[in-house]
């Protein structure tokens, strides 16, 4: 009966047995295990745990460590590794996570951790899960632990890694490797398909490669038709409504749930700028409600933009069409206004646009119900004063708006719309604003009667001229008023021609009216003439931006007035606008004016005649050359037409042509000169295209066996695309109709391009065909159980064979559906080799050789061991057994026999591997020895001291007693009671008898010492406890380290367990919350009590603001190299200087190891030089000692630690400067001198009375001098020059006789 590791542990009730839930990392670092050379061999590097289980016990994966002193099995001729090694095992000197095989994963080796959960129902199981976890270990070296929460159905993973990058990669591999396959559908706008695919599919391929998913995008011919330019209409967004919504395309993503979700997020992130932003129109609201929705001066809209829109949406509410018509009337008369309502438009974040749309619709529905109407009569000419700011004022004060009739409607009734309560006040305001301005009118017809017999036509021409020339605008600007002329449509239908001057200043309006009248009088009938010009050539005469007509007007000193496009009139008025002096008499002046405008009319008619010289040319151009004439994106065609756009070019028969029309034509129409130019250019373009076709149009055609076409084309056309990119040729394969009738179906291949490139492409294709014709297939029978070894990890061995011989290997796959037809037809022992005949033969021979070697290597041996030794053989998390497997190359399985005291072990591999593995296992069994159990009674208050910080003291005690040094082997030797146990004073020792007895003796010895310790209570005000403990307990740890005591503050877990203090009588009347318990020797306790009773700077003064010892202090971290740690922290005045700056310094803990400078060993004994007994004191030889100087920080760690300075803002810089000075001082101590061999009798002279001499030497030389107490070593630290000076000063003191220090 096969039992799992967890069941074995429960059966034997072994403490310290391997974890029943081993790490899933496969190769995660593990504790050390014994070597296999001898029973008492030293430990070898650790091995990770492989979760793949074959039979009864988890089959533990191979290690990453190299074998030690073990002869390797025979090596295959086709592999560089022993054939018995698992295919997935990678042989490297170090584990991939950055942790070597010298120890288990710790917080130092794997400091980065992350915990996450995945629904267990979504996870794959079985071999897929094992392969995924093995991949995690191989690629990241991370340690993975997992557990399933039955209540929530979640599987929790705890991952440890050496760095953040490996941690993130490990999580990604777990989520993708363990998730079940799913199919996700994502809808994207059709215009983003190109962005998702990328150039030549590069973007899409990068996503599929990164996520290991399959992404299906519908074919182009299946996509809906969509033209962004037609949808946008090419018009300004302020003048046109939104077009149809962009269609959505469904993209399918297949893969594991995590990978598919990642791919979806990448796709959406790629097009986030498109899908997150959008626009919308609201078209069902009449424009008469727009002012209510917008609010006075857009106040309501701004609230919506900032509120529901969050500043991410812009709203455009156009003014009512009547308002725009009146404004157009004021600004430009040449174009007819578009009197139609525009939609309300929203642009920005799509989700917030929906919220705003709903809110605007709600407001509209409320307005329809609540608004009332009232009509009043306002003169038509005053309507313009009730829009814009005037309407906003009325709306702001009354909540009402004014609905005006259309601008071209003679109706003078306006409608007041708003709440019933505000209508009366709105009417009063409207009438007030309409009457608030002064209006003066000029009847142009009446003024024209003074000089013209036909005043109406003359008045219309003058009004058009004054408006066209900008004369009215100039008058308005000069007087600060507005001047309005009648619109073109009014002039065409009415005999009244009135120009109005409007303004708030009555005097200015009158002056403007008079100046308008004078301007009308200044244009006599003789200064105007009219010519008839075909409207078709008006735009040609005007030119782009009126440049052509402007030149004409300047040259002839006239102004031309063309009819608007809507009038469809041929009348063009020419008015004299020059400044030359004219004759004084009326007759002479009129004659001169008629002469000037007559000459201008003749010139304009001449230009019109030239422009009217329009002709049409039809060129015979074959349809295949049309693309050259059009160019990419119409670029060539646009260049031919030019900026003026006077030429029209039609390529082909055109859309409206009847069926059967000639398509081999290009039609050019326009001014004759431009037509001639364009025709010449088109002929040249066609000629160049024909020449290029001659050069690049070489064609080669031949037939290809149809069964080879798929191989020649490649996946998604990759092969022919490569030919196209490298040789610049086009390759097409077409079915041959005649070939279909033949016995052997063929396809027709056509290659087009330059001759040399076409011939090379043909040669390559034919060479590929020859290779395909030489292809053969062989089937080799290989046992299923040895196939994984032939494939290799990740298929590397199989891939190497394929690349070496140019063949394709196909191994049978596992088919879970054994009842399916494919499963029944498939044979698990057949391997297919396909390729060239020579390559297949060579690959077959090597594969059979490797298979024979693998079959020979799979031997089996079975033996039994005591069941109590199973835990030691397996090791913690399989470390020991994994190490044996790695070193020997054998496979080891543990089974449980019928006997309770025996366990069967099966070893598989070659003979050498089996022998070595068996010897290693038996060596572990011999190490177990005679096991005994001892129960020690130790007072619970001593437990913490005996265990030490982090258990280090207990580990050192076990190692010193002859026990194992490895942490995983120490587990179970000493067991202290846990909180809640019945016997809280019983410590259990279990293990080898000799080791247990030594540990017992050492523990009893230490307990005797602890019994001599005292527990003293120290009165410390509770307000100072926080400062004494420090941030994160740093101050408390430093105090305990310095005094070698245990200090417990009220509220700590151990405080009440310590018991009563020895000096209870001294603490009468002291508040229990102020008593701090200190445990240690009498001297240490006294020192700790003295330090505790020193008032804290933070709490020791009432003026907390001055001292800054509270949460209101600012702090700054200063990064200081680790190598300067002791040089700075041991500076005697540093803390005092920091305190003098009203600041506090937190020194990082724990402190790094202090470097020890030891003089280099030499042949002479230092002790021999300390004293000479064969010389009298008077005859002492001069002693110079042994001297050595070296770099102080040589080989030191370059890492940094953060020292924290806390102070008020105004003191912080000063305090940091003190610390920076200390850093510079430590940096200057670049050298250390080691002086030995001086007589010990001279040391008192070097030190001097109460240290006076050594203090003087330190001050004079600027060095730190330390005189050894136990030896004759004198250490001098400082700069190189100061160290040498200090050495000479010390020798001077030693050699000076008769002096007293």
TrEMBL record:
Coiled-coil segments: 755-785
Residue intervals of the K Homology domain: 180-272, 276-365, 370-435, 525-609, 613-687, 696-770, 774-852, 857-926, 930-1008, 1012-1097, 1230-1295
Location of region: Disordered: 1-52, 215-247, 811-830
Keywords attached to this entry: Coiled coil, Repeat, RNA-binding
Acidic residues bias spans: 236-245
InterPro entries with a match to the protein in the record: KH_dom (IPR004087), KH_dom_type_1 (IPR004088), KH_dom_type_1_sf (IPR036612), SCP160-like_KH (IPR054548)
Low complexity composition-biased segments: 29-39
Organism domain of life: Eukaryota
Annotated protein name in UniProt: K Homology domain-containing protein
Naturally occurring in which organism (per UniProt): Vanrija albida
